[in-house]
Structure prediction request, 107 residues.
Amino acid sequence: MSSTIFEPGLNHFLVVSALLFSLGIMAVLSKRNVIMVLMGVELILNSANINLIAFSRFTELSLDGQMIGLFVIIIAAAEAAVALAIVLNVYNRFKTINLDEINLLKG
Prediction:
C-alpha cells in the first residue's frame, strides 16, 4: 500500500478565501451589532491575506505577497484597536452598540 499525501493547490486556497470573503460580506451587511460588523471586516481582510499568500506561494512572486500579507495583518491589528476604542466611546454615549439605535451623530 502506498500512502499518498494530500497537497492543497491554489484552487483550494481560493475556495477557502472566497468562503471567508462571503461570510465576511454577509456579516457586514446583515448584522446590527457593531462588534459583529467589525468581525466581518476582519474576515474580509483575512480572505485577502489568504489570496496574497497563496498567489505568492504558487506563482513567481517570491516573497512580495507574504510581505504584503504581513503588512495587512499589522494594519488589521491597528484597525481593531481603533475600532474597539470607538465602540467603547459610542457605548458610553448611547448605552448601546446596535447600529439601528445609534442614529444621532451630533451632540
